[in-house]
């Protein structure tokens, strides 16, 4: 490739010689990125040079972005270290949190410090499986039933077709849903340490080819929305998607009073009236206060697909007083889609976020690093729930944000 400058490359676009998305074929990725930034800046007559101050080679983002013009930077903080007793993650860990919401890291940090005072949080992954649900058109409901039976009879053949596309992925099961002459087949895979959406999609594509070859069903769309990816959906809340993960703690009453400035009974009442009854009245899928905050901040810090915060916030928080008058609190995230290989985890700053947790790359055995990341996020969510419920109990929410968030 001959060397060229960003200005010269931009000139060729202005002349109509090159299209904006073709520049990497004619220059190094950083030069192509700078040329596009010049072209975008001149359309608004603004200085956007700050977008060019990024900390990695643009070529490293080749599989993550098209038409790159630079990078936005989100401040990264840490909460903790927090003591975690998980199946896949144990010990004291800092939680990396990327956010622009002042007071959020302070809040999760307070929650972590209270978890430590109570002896740490327990976390467990209870279910795993990334799903893809194609929709097929069939003649009528009789044909729909026949297709469901065919799938049941030929699950080994479907498994072989799907698993031929991947070294790590395993087809766990296929759940059928019939709506008139529409058949949705929800394929669920163990994707090990990958979040698995590309893996599951490619594998399901091969299984669909077999179904079309062997039956009268016609594939309408490889994703029929019963998967359900990047949309609020009850199917994920009930059946799970990615990792289903729970974390909990019992906090002695004195610690709640001293560190959280409220009581176990007040936190339990707020949780019932706000997170359970209030959410039910609102028709919400999120029976929690702000699990999305911990999920989003840790997703950004560790290179997860940020659109999947939608499913990540499918969580229920419980809080109750124990017979001894202490506080039991838990959070259960039904559909946390996380990976420690592939996707955005390859980018250098996101890989560093995974390193802070000690979960970068493939686990031994495969799948344990993604389990560990899920457990860490669940603990961060628990810390955030405790701190916010307490701030509501002590009436500190608005003053906290007036002090730290403005
Ligand atoms: C702000 C606090 C923590 C003060 O809380 P406090 O108890 O007055 O603070 P403190 O000075 O006594 O410190 C207690 C601990 O908080 C942490 N802490 C304290 N300050 C910092 C700081 N600067 N940086 C890092 N950590 C900090 C730290 O762990 C510290 O312990 P230490 O380490 O000193 O032993 C508390 O009032 C709080 O957590 N408020 C709640 C804020 C919150 O949760 N915001 C979340 C976002 S709200 C939202 O987005 C969603 C919402 C609300 O709309 C959802 C809904 O509808 O519910
Ligand atoms: N295609 C789609 O419809 C959608 C795609 N996405 C995007 O998909 C990407 C995530 O897909 P995903 O499949 O996770 O990632 P990648 O497409 O980046 O693939 C990751 C690959 O890593 C390999 N691998 C190496 N070590 C391991 C290990 N220990 N465990 C598991 N896999 C391992 C696997 O190869 P092998 O399979 O050969 O074993 C796996 O397929 C994100 O960029 C996301 O934004 C998001 C939503 C929808």
UniProtKB/TrEMBL annotation:
Its EC number is 1.1.1.34. It catalyses: (R)-mevalonate + 2 NADP(+) + CoA = (3S)-3-hydroxy-3-methylglutaryl-CoA + 2 NADPH + 2 H(+). Pathway: Metabolic intermediate biosynthesis; (R)-mevalonate biosynthesis; (R)-mevalonate from acetyl-CoA: step 3/3. Gene3D superfamilies: 3-hydroxy-3-methylglutaryl-coenzyme A Reductase, Chain A, domain 2 (3.90.770.10), Hydroxymethylglutaryl-CoA reductase, class I/II, NAD/NADP-binding domain (3.30.70.420). This is 3-hydroxy-3-methylglutaryl coenzyme A reductase. One of its GO terms (molecular function) is hydroxymethylglutaryl-CoA reductase (NADPH) activity. Pfam families: HMG-CoA_red (PF00368). SUPFAM superfamilies: NAD-binding domain of HMG-CoA reductase, Substrate-binding domain of HMG-CoA reductase. One of its GO terms (biological process) is isoprenoid biosynthetic process. NCBIfam families: HMG_CoA_R_NADP. It comes from the Archaea. The keyword Oxidoreductase applies. It is an enzyme of class 1 (oxidoreductase). The keyword Transferase does not apply. Keywords: NADP, Oxidoreductase. It comes from Halorubrum vacuolatum (Natronobacterium vacuolatum). Belongs to the HMG-CoA reductase family.
């Amino acid at each position: 490739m001959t060397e060229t400058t960003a200005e010269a490359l931009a000139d060729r676009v202005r002349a109509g010689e090159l299209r904006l998305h073709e520049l990497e074929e004619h220059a190094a990725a950083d030069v192509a990125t700078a040329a596009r930034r010049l072209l975008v800046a001149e359309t608004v007559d603004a200085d956007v040079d700050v977008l060019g101050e990024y900390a990695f080679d643009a070529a490293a983002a080749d599989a993550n972005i098209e038409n790159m013009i630079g990078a936005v930077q989100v401040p990264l903080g840490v909460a903790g270290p927090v003591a975690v007793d998980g199946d896949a993650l144990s010990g004291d860990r800092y939680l990396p949190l990327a956010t622009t919401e002042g007071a959020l890291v302070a809040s999760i940090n307070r929650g972590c410090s209270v978890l430590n005072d109570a002896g740490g949080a327990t976390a467990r992954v209870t279910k795993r499986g990334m799903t893809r649900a194609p929709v097929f058109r069939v003649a009528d409901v009789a044909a729909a039933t026949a297709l469901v039976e065919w799938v049941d009879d030929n699950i080994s053949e479907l498994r072989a077709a799907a698993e031929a596309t991947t070294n790590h992925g395993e087809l766990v099961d296929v759940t059928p849903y019939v709506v008139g002459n529409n058949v949705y087949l929800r394929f669920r895979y163990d994707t090990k340490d990958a979040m698995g959406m590309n893996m599951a999609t490619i594998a399901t594509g091969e299984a669909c080819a077999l179904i079309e070859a062997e039956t009268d069903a016609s594939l309408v769309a490889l994703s029929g929305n019963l998967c359900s990816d990047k949309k609020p959906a009850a199917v994920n809340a009930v059946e799970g998607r990615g990792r289903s993960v729970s974390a909990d703690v019992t906090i002695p009453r004195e610690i709640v009073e001293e560190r959280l400035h409220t009581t176990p009974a007040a936190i339990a009442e707020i949780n019932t009236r706000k997170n359970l009854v209030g959410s039910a009245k609102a028709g919400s899928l999120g029976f929690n206060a702000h699990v999305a905050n911990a999920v989003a901040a840790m997703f950004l810090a560790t290179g997860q697909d940020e659109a999947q915060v939608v499913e990540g916030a499918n969580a229920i928080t419980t809080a109750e007083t124990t017979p001894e008058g202490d506080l039991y609190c838990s959070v259960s995230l039904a559909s946390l889609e996380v990976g420690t290989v592939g996707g955005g985890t390859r980018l250098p700053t996101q890989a560093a976020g995974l390193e802070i947790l000690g979960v970068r790359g493939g686990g031994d055995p495969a799948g344990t690093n993604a389990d560990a990341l899920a457990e860490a996020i669940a603990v961060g969510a628990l810390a955030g729930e405790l701190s916010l419920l307490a701030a509501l109990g002590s009436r500190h929410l608005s003053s906290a944000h007036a002090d730290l968030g403005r």
